Amino acid sequence: MAKQQDADVAFIEALARLLRKHDLSEIEVAREEGEDRDLKVRLSRQPTAPAAPALAANPPPAAAPAASTPAPAAPKPTPEDPAQHPGAVTSPMVGTVYLAAEPGAPNFVKIGDRVSEGQTLLIVEAMKTMNQIPAPRAGVVKRIMVEDGQAVEFGAPLVIIE
């Protein structure tokens, strides 16, 4: 039994190395090793945020601008992170997105559609399982952030509903 546990630990450590090496946010594996033994492993991690710059203890005093010097332009606003939008529907798993039930079928939703809570927005295929992604609330589809057949990571924004 200890031999099997050592093998399982080595397998999980190898998965963790793959997670870091390929900068993945999640890995999930299920393997069957006979009638009495299955192994399911799910590793996930938070993406590392860049460190905030340290503030100087005593910043130099700002010089007053000369009268002839024009004021600097306001900094351009950074684009909003769609995953932080209050109406964002994010992927609950790593997988492949499908906008329709099958090739050639109409998409579940399109921009401008009014959706009800629980209505299927799209499908995320993970480990050969089709997972319907429901609307968490009623509203209007404002943006579709993914394309049919696109690979997505856990937490990736899929649709914006307002």
UniProtKB/TrEMBL annotation:
Residues 30-90 are annotated as: Disordered. GO terms for biological process: fatty acid biosynthetic process. Pfam families: Biotin_lipoyl. Pathway: Lipid metabolism; fatty acid biosynthesis. It comes from the Bacteria. Keywords: Biotin, Fatty acid biosynthesis, Fatty acid metabolism, Lipid biosynthesis, Lipid metabolism. InterPro entries: AcCoA_biotinCC, Biotin_BS, Biotin_Carboxyl_Carrier/Decarb, Biotin_lipoyl, Single_hybrid_motif. Residues 30-41 have a biased composition (Basic and acidic residues). Coiled coil: none annotated. This protein is a component of the acetyl coenzyme A carboxylase complex; first, biotin carboxylase catalyzes the carboxylation of the carrier protein and then the transcarboxylase transfers the carboxyl group to form malonyl-CoA. NCBIfam families: BCCP. This is Biotin carboxyl carrier protein of acetyl-CoA carboxylase. The gene is accB.
